[in-house]
Design a protein that fits this description.
Bound molecules: zinc ion
Order of helices and strands: HEHHEHEEHHHHHHHHHHHHHHH
Number of helices: 19
Strand order of the largest sheet: 1-2
Radius of gyration: 29 Å
């Protein structure tokens, strides 16, 4: 029995079990192709290829069906089809259940089932060996009809998406460098694919807010004062001159800091619950308490295994962190921990949730800032108007939020009608945000009670 082993080093966004199965199929069909081309085998016999992946079986049996523009692993599927067609042999793909030896003795399995078990073991052993030896191959194969490379990466699926993503990354890299948010060197070290995944979970208006925040064009007073002559460029909560986007998470207003700490507490609880290194949780706690004034390298100086991560945090800085732009060092550490603990949680979902928590730190401050701005409006009103507005606030605290909040969209700057018709995940996110809004309203109540006693 002959064996062929191959180990491809695949880009993170392309690697999958499906690609692994397809590589096996491409190798198998190469053997058939070589036999017919070199040995001149001509046969009317139907050759059976067994595979435990239904996607591969389907494609192997439909070699003339056009592939869609967005077809995943299109490079290997094209090669698989060509191998079968060029061989001119009659090939049938058959499905075999994988890992059957988990519950059944190997000797009781059929030959295809036994071969499948053996192939899986060979693949696993070879993968580990080649990773240890660092002798992996790139994602190119002989006889590919076409290979297209973009920024040193081979396109394996949708050309349109690849060009769109690459162009977007180039534009973003230039913008972030020009605005001194992220240096070009560090740009590729940010886990952008998880930022995309996190953004995809948000309602449209939240994504708009993130874009405004990142680009420095949200509705804070630095920008508003440029277009409205009656707006003064200062923070409505603490009076700090020049209310820029970076002030959002640095505001010294005690109530805002309280809200920030509540957000941090939630983040730290989540990190602990999801099995994060307890030293990292402690370092984060100390770091967040310093509001961007401390260096993570110093905070984590007692933990040598965290030095690379700490350097990465400091290089990217506070603003990147509180807007969900994290580096891969933390993800590498967490991925190892999840594997060691045999956790069912995948690093992809962990990273996405972490980014959502981090973005929440900034967004809750944005909500609170809106409330502070609203208080200023209240202070300029007559007593009866003031009472009427406070009655409204009282109702808000007592009434079902879904019935009332659409009337107060400007407070949260979110299109609640759109949110109401969106997915459950969107609504859950909105409910989490409501906690902050209620905290803000409690702050308004406290201010009005104080003012009332002075007036009285
Ligand atoms: Zn402030």
């Amino acid at each position: 029995m002959a064996q062929i082993q191959f180990c491809e080093r695949t880009e993170k966004d392309v690697a999958s079990n499906y690609r692994g199965e397809l590589i096996g199929s491409v190798i198998a069909t190469f053997v058939l192709r070589a036999l017919t081309e070199l040995a001149g085998i001509k046969s009317t016999h139907t050759y059976e290829i067994f595979c435990d992946n239904m996607g591969v079986v389907r494609h192997g049996n439909n070699v003339y069906r056009p592939l869609s523009e967005s077809q995943a692993q299109a490079d290997l599927l094209t090669l698989l089809r060509r191998n079968i067609l060029v061989s001119k042999l009659k090939v049938t793909y058959l499905h075999v259940y994988g890992h059957l030896d988990d519950n059944t003795s190997f000797s009781k399995l059929s030959l295809p089932q036994q071969l499948n078990v053996m192939a899986d073991k060979l693949a696993r052993d070879h993968l580990l060996e080649q990773v240890a030896l660092r002798t992996t191959w790139g994602s190119t194969y002989p006889h590919e009809p076409v290979r297209i490379w973009l920024s040193q990466k081979k396109i394996t699926s949708s050309f349109r998406q690849a060009i769109y993503t690459d162009w977007g990354a180039q534009v973003a890299m230039r913008l972030f460098a020009r605005r001194r948010i992220v240096h070009r060197y560090w740009f590729p070290r940010i886990a952008w694919e998880f930022v995309s995944r996190a953004m995809a979970r948000y309602p449209q208006m939240f994504r708009v807010w993130v874009t405004k925040q990142v680009s420095g064009f949200n509705g804070l007073n630095r920008q508003l004062s440029r277009i409205q002559s009656d707006v003064v460029n200062e923070c409505p909560c603490c009076g700090h001159k020049d209310e820029s986007t970076s002030h959002l998470t640095r505001c010294t207003n005690p109530s805002r800091r309280k809200v920030f700490q509540q957000s941090v507490d939630k983040l730290l609880d989540w990190l602990e619950d999801t099995g994060c290194d307890v030293r990292i949780v402690e370092c984060f706690e100390a770091y967040f308490l310093q509001y961007g004034e401390a260096a993570m390298v110093e905070i984590a100086s007692d933990h040598p295994h965290l030095s690379r991560w700490a350097m990465e945090v400091d290089t990217l800085g506070w603003d990147n962190l509180v807007e969900g732009r994290i580096g891969y060092e933390l993800l590498d550490i967490q991925a190892r921990l999840l594997t060691e603990k045999g956790s069912s949680r995948h690093i992809k979902s962990w990273a996405t949730e972490l980014i959502q928590h981090l973005l929440g730190l900034s967004h809750r401050q944005w909500i609170y800032q809106n409330a502070c701005t609203h208080i200023r409006v209240l202070e300029g009103k007559s007593e009866s108007e003031h009472d009427s507005i406070m009655e409204q606030v009282g109702k808000l605290l007592l009434t079902d939020p879904e019935m009332l909040l659409p009337q107060h969209r400007r407070l949260l700057d979110i299109d609640f009608e759109q949110l109401g018709s969106g997915t459950t995940a969107n609504r859950q996110y909105w409910l989490a945000e409501l906690e902050s809004a209620i905290s803000a309203f409690q702050h308004i109540n406290a201010r009005v009670i104080t003012n009332g006693s002075i007036n009285g």
